[in-house]
Structure formats: structure tokens, C-alpha cells
Description:
This protein is 33% helix and 29% strand. With 522 residues, the chain is an alpha+beta fold. The chain has 5 domains: 3-121; 138-214, CATH 2.40.50.140; 221-294, CATH 2.40.50.140; 302-381, CATH 2.40.50.140; 392-487, CATH 2.40.50.140. Strands 3-2-1-4-5 form a 5-stranded antiparallel sheet. Strands 6-7-8-10-9 form a 5-stranded mixed β-barrel. Strands 11-12-13-15-14 form a 5-stranded mixed β-barrel. Helix 1 (3-51) packs antiparallel against helix 3 and helix 1 runs parallel beside helix 4.
Amino acid sequence: MDNAEIVNTTNENELTNQETQAxxxxxxxxxxxxQTDSAITETAAQEIIAEQPLSPEAADGPVAEIKExxxxxxxxxxxxxxxxxxxxxxxxxxxxxxxxxxxxxxxTKLDEESExxxxxxxxxxxxxxQLKLAKDNNESIEVFVKSRIKGGLRVVYEExxxxxxxxxxxxxxxxxxxxxxxxxxxxIDVTIHELEEKEDGRKTVIVSRKQHLLKxxxxxxxxxxxxxxxxxxxxxxxxxxxxxxVEGLIHISRLSHIRTEDPTKDFKRGETIRAVVVExxxxxxxxxxxxxxxxxxxxxxxxxxxxxxxxxxGIIRRFTDFGAFIELRPGIDGLxxxxxxxxxxxxxxxxxLFKIGDSIETSILAVSEEKRSVTLSLKRxxxxxxxxxxxxxxxxxxxxxxxxxxxxxxxIVTINNELDGFMPRSKMKQIEVGNRIPYQAGDKIAVTIADxxxxxxxxxxxxxxxxxxxxxxxxxxxxxxxxxxxxQSPIPPQxxxxxESGTFTLSDMLSEQMKDSLLxxx
Length: 522
């Protein structure tokens, strides 16, 4: 091989070595750039995930991918061009400065991320000002319910996350868990409850659905409106109905014309029910409902169905101090007063004759569809005995009776276990003991007929005042008088010694022994 060939071969080898070194350097540069870009991209993505507010479209999805061609465009392309240009020139002249290249890439990334943060903060600031204005004007806003979280719901407005406490979700003090979950993924109207801006720039917004529901409900509801809602709860005193998030109460007395003993047996939570608005109290936030208005009244044609004088069987449902209520048919209760229970007996309490659930037959004494009332009588089923009482119990005749009960004005005495007479206090003045009636319930006494008034069903009695009775009464009076004297406080000794002028004498100051000693001296 000649010298020219050797020289050419050497030059080719040197060129090959230079190309190899340049390629290795380019590969190393690209690896550093890729590693640096990958680290920066991952860091930025994590920051975006941590700070990016939830939105209805992408709150649960991954953060948008960052494209390499867009993120490292200018500095890397320049470096790559510089390296590529080295293929046509000597390697040492185009060797890139990797540290400077890495610094340029990082600075570019930080600048872009800073711009994004600044834009996001400015957006949040604008939204926050909108919310302030809405709160000042008491306006409602529409938010998207993102998810159920501890204590309430996460909602979003204009990409800004807000918080809706469970206690402000509805008018219920504790809303149902299912209701909170059912609203996720939907939009609802709320009002701004609280705004807070901290020193570090963070902003907190709490919203309320309760205020919006209350306001909108009061605006549309009127007394007499027919509403439809679901039963939210059933209690012993009535049924609560959910009217678009606001609760109305159907009191047990308004559930039906037919008396309801236990609402929990007839109504279940979740059932749809219709009712009429009968009460609106904005100050206390109460809505009164009734189902009676949408039912046919059982009082229709009551005067034709229960004419005066007709006999009807019923069931005793409840007692009062003045009588008993008898259910003639579902929804129709008649009143049987104590005075209409017996011709000859004075009934103090209905429970003395009957018990709840008893079935009895009564006569219709009065009826009114307009007043929704029926008055009953038990004694009028039997003939009136007062027409013959004057003959059986003539004035002046004596009988043995039993004291039934004693009252302030006198005593009720039963004769022959069939007829009650009244002994007024004025008839017992001669035998009163300490201004008290001398009898107790159960005492057997001799009485005389003082007066009979059949029209008023009145029999007046008087005690038999024989010598023995008067003597016993006087003896009782004396014992009561002595007992009263013993119970009186004795006069203090220091008061007993006073004369009429209110002064003390010398002898009042001496003891009894000293007085005897002075008197015994000559």
C-alpha cells in the first residue's frame, strides 16, 4: 500500500472517530434533556393535581397530559440543531453546554407553571368577588354536586370548590344519607352562607341549600294549596311530609275525619301523600297540613242518618270530666253527658258505670251537621220514673240512706240503692261539727224527704233530728271545741302578768316562793 492510501485510510479513521464521539455526545445530551424534562413534567403535574380546583368535567379524571413537543420546544430544538450542525463541522466547535441547557429548560417550565398559577388565582379571585356580590344581594347560585364527603357535600361553582354542610342541605335537622347521595352528580340552587379569606390567600366558601328552599317555599305556598310530597317521618303525634326539601306537619287530628289512634300503623316513611296547606307560620318556620279537606266528610247527611229520637249502638272511645264520647260510625262521635246517663243516679265519673270499649245503645237527643255534633242520652231509653217518685217518696217520710259522697255544698245520699237525693248544707247546721259536714262516704244515716221536684228531677233530703242525733252532735261539737283549745298556743307568762295599762307590778317580778315568804311574815 502506498503512502497516499495510508494517509487516506488514516483520515477516514479519524473522521469516523469524530463522528462517533459527536454521536455519543448527542445521545448523552438527549438523555439528560429527557430525564430533566420528565422530572419537571412530573413535578408540574403533581402541583396541578394538588392545586387544580375540581370541575364537573374533570374533577375525578387525570390531569391533562403535558405534550413534550409543546413543553420543551424552543431551547431543546436549538440545542438539537446545534448538535446536528456539528455533523458538518468539527466536533469540538459544536459541543453543547449541558448545564446551561438544563437551566434553560427548568426556567422555562417554572415560568409557564407560574403563569398558570397566576391565571388560576386571578380566576378564583374573580369568582370570589362574584360570590361576595351574590351574598350581599341574597341571591341564589347554581352549583354542581361533585361528591359526598365527611360532614356534607363538595360542590363546584365556576371551577371553584365549595362546601355544603349536611345540616344546611335541607330543612331537616339530620338529612337522610340516601338523600345526600342521590343528589351527587346533579345541579342544585344554594345561597352563600359564609365567606372567609385567610392571610395566605386561601379562600373558603360555605353554601346553604336550606335558606334557598325556605325562601322559595314561602314564595310559592299559600293557605289552601294542594301539595304532594313524600312522608319523611312518622311520629305518635302526626306525619311529616317533605315538600321540596321543606317539611310540613299533618297533625294526628288532621290525618283523617276518622280518628287515628296510632299514625305509625297507617302511614310509612317514603310513601307519597297529598294534603292541603292550612297553616303558614314564617316566624317559626312551620307549615301545617291537613288531609281532611281532600276526604269526603262523614258528617254529610248526618241529620237524615241519625234523626232525633232514634236508637243507635256505639262504642265508648274516651271519657271526659263531663261525660263519654261514643263512636256511632267511623268519624262520628256523639257525646253522652253524665246527666243523661241515669234518671235517678247522680254520676260523678263515667268510669263508675262503663269502661273504654264497651258497646252501649243510646238515643239521639240532638244532631247538627253544621256544628258537627251529636248529643246522646242513655236514660231516655227507659221510661221517666219521676212521674211516680212523688208517690213512692212523699214529703216527710223517713228512709234509711247511705252517704255516696260529700261535697262543699252538701252530701249525696242514696235511698233504697236506686234513688239519689241531695242533702244541702243548710239542712245540717244543727249537727255540724266545727263548721264541717258530720258525714263521710259510706255512713248509714236516717233521712227524711224534704222536697220533690219531678220537673227538675230533684229530691231534697234532710237528716232526722231526734234527741239522740242532736245529743251526739253536741258531744262531737264539744270534743272538737276542746281539741281546738288545746291546739291554741298558751299565753306567754310575761304577758299574763300585765295589767290593763300594759305595765308590770312589783309582785309580778317576784317568784312564787318569795311571795309565800313575804305573806307568811307577821
